[in-house]
Design a protein that fits this description.
By secondary structure, the chain is an alpha+beta fold. It has four helices and three strands.
Amino acid sequence: MNNQVNNQQNNQVKFSIELYTVKETATILRVNYRKILDMIHLKQLSAYKIDGVYRVPIHAIHRYLEKVKTK
């Protein structure tokens, strides 16, 4: 029995990605909520739509910041 439990735990996929709501993303970037929605619709910021709600991965925020970084 114990071996079955260990096998089930080993077969589970470990996937972790830090996701932020539009409001949280707006706070991080210090812009308003609507600006984040516009950026998502204009494909300037990547996001996932889960159950009708946008979630922005941390790597998308980092990528956006690198893109707009001044030289």
